[in-house]
Write a structure and sequence with these properties.
mainly alpha; 5 helices; extended
Length: 105
Amino acid sequence: MSVHTTNSQFSFQLPSMSYIDAKWEEPNLRTPAPAPEARRRGGLGVWLSHRIADLLSWRRNSQAAAELSRMSDHELSDIGLSRCDITRVFSRDYNADLRQRGIGV
């Protein structure tokens, strides 16, 4: 016996899943950047905070790349990647179109 159901009959909805980090694909999850006029233009504290932010971003990307590298070829193909795509995911050159649309990192 088979029963036909529609989406309106389900009482739940699956969350939007991301293979890397949801904030890269869903702009509403990203923290907004401060307005340019609110940023300070110089000083050691500003320079240091930028370097720390860069370091944390690099570390997060390295951990994500390592996690993808630990996946099997079959698992990678399930999410639409091949092993050679792993480095491209984190390259600014390949993500230029996403940055132009305000989605990329």
